[in-house]
């Protein structure tokens, strides 16, 4: 059975600065700089090599410092110009099948931020390509529960199983509702949309009863279950929500991404966590839920303070994750 620390270690896998492995890993990466000179992501050697091979007529000029291992790319005056060049580079890679991860092309855009630029945006990037640039991405995750006085802690939790056909973490357990925040979309509206798409939840119920519970942050180094190339950098911020469902409201699959929903006691969820059945970042969301509800506490978890700290890791790149108000 996996411990709670084991679950954290499966998702928050980028070494911390006090770990010698941090220096070792950084020595193999390039830091991507925005036009303002601000670090916005980590690029692996293989991605740098592929970027260098893209014709200059597509990508523009690169400024590379091998001594400091930095790359300034897409150095154009406006966000619109930068986004167009990033899109052209990603389309070139996709056409030439440069990276397997682009087989999961979504036609969805994520925003990359830098408050030092006009408008606060560096560029938009195709969702499946975001990990190639190692930039911070954002999503929403909601845990739905139902009052159950006879159950441990007085609740039962709705847990979906991902469709086995999904290219990432197929067949694993998830949070009740989860999805990526598209460019130009605010977290709450993203949640409302995903709630209907993934769980058939009534819009008026979500809008009227959902509770925002802050964020969690972590830095994941992709592994085989994520699909595509392993070793790509993926720092993420998830906006967290809770929703109590009436007994007569049952989440139901409304697309091909969810196989079924279970209504489980806290003990059953804990057992599934221990068996490693949850998608890694969804396990972190469940731990956050347990911490907030007092289910996980100093009395039953010797690493309680470390768990709380690692659920809210400081990410070194700019973005709205640095301001709770910006993600409301």
What's the number of extended β-strand segments?
A: 12
The helix-and-strand class reads: alpha+beta
Low-confidence stretches: none
Using only C-alpha atoms, the radius of gyration works out to 20 Å
Report the total helices. Answer: 11
Shape: globular
What count of domains describes the coordinates?
2
Write down the CATH topology of the largest domain.
Nucleoside Triphosphate Pyrophosphohydrolase
CATH C-level name of the largest domain? Alpha Beta
- Into which percent range does the helicity of residues fall? 25-40%
Q: What is the string of helix and strand elements?
A: HHEEHHEEHEEHEEEHHEEEHHH
Characterize the largest beta sheet: strand count, sense, and whether it forms a barrel: 6 strands, mixed
Give the mean pLDDT. Answer: 96
Topology readout:
Layout: H1 4-11, H2 20-26, E1 29-33, E2 39-44, H3 45-53, H4 56-59, E3 63-65, E4 70-72, H5 79-95, E5 109-113, E6 121-126, H6 130-133, E7 137-147, E8 155-162, E9 177-180, H7 187-199, H8 203-209, E10 211-221, E11 233-244, E12 258-265, H9 266-274, H10 280-292, H11 304-310
Helix pairs in contact: 1-10
Question: How would you describe what is shown here?
Answer:
The mean pLDDT is 96. This protein has helices at residues 4-11, 20-26, 45-53, 56-59, 79-95, 130-133, 187-199, 203-209, 266-274, 280-292, 304-310; strands at 29-33, 39-44, 63-65, 70-72, 109-113, 121-126, 137-147, 155-162, 177-180, 211-221, 233-244, 258-265. The chain has 328 residues and is of the alpha+beta class. Strand 7 and strand 8 form a beta hairpin. The chain has two domains: 20-133, no CATH class; 138-215 and 225-327, Nucleoside Triphosphate Pyrophosphohydrolase (Alpha-Beta Complex), CATH 3.90.79.10. Helices cover 30% and strands 25% of the residues. It is globular, with a radius of gyration of 20 Å.
């Amino acid at each position: 059975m996996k411990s709670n620390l084991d679950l954290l270690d499966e998702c928050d896998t980028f070494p911390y600065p006090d770990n010698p492995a941090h220096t070792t890993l950084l020595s193999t990466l390039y830091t991507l700089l925005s036009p303002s000179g601000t670090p916005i992501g980590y690029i692996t050697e293989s991605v740098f090599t592929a970027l260098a091979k893209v014709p200059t007529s597509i990508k523009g000029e690169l400024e590379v410092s091998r001594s400091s291992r930095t790359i300034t790319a897409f150095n154009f005056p406006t966000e619109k110009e930068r986004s167009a060049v990033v899109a052209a580079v990603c389309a070139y890679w996709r056409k030439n099948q440069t990276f397997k991860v682009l087989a999961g092309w979504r036609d969805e855009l994520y925003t990359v931020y830098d408050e030092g630029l006009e408008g606060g945006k560096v560029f938009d990037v195709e969702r499946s390509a975001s990990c190639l640039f190692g930039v911070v991405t954002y999503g929403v995750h909601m845990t739905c529960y139902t009052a159950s006085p006879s159950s441990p802690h007085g609740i039962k939790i709705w847990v979906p199983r991902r469709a086995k056909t999904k290219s990432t973490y197929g067949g694993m357990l998830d949070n009740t509702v989860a999805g990526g925040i598209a460019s130009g979309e605010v977290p709450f509206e993203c949640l409302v949309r995903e709630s209907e798409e993934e769980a058939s939840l009534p819009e008026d119920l979500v809008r009227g009863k959902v509770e925002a519970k802050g964020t969690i942050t972590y830095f994941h180094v992709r592994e085989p279950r994520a699909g595509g190339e392993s070793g790509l950098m993926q720092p993420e911020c998830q906006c967290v929500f809770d929703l109590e469902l009436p007994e007569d409201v049952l989440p139901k699959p409304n697309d091909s991404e969810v196989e079924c929903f279970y209504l489980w006691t806290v003990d059953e969820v804990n057992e599934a966590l221990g068996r490693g059945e949850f998608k890694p970042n969804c396990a972190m969301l469940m731990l956050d839920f347990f911490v907030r509800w007092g289910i996980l506490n100093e009395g039953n978890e010797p690493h309680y303070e470390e768990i709380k700290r690692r659920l809210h890791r400081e990410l070194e790149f700019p973005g709205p994750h640095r301001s709770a108000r910006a993600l409301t």
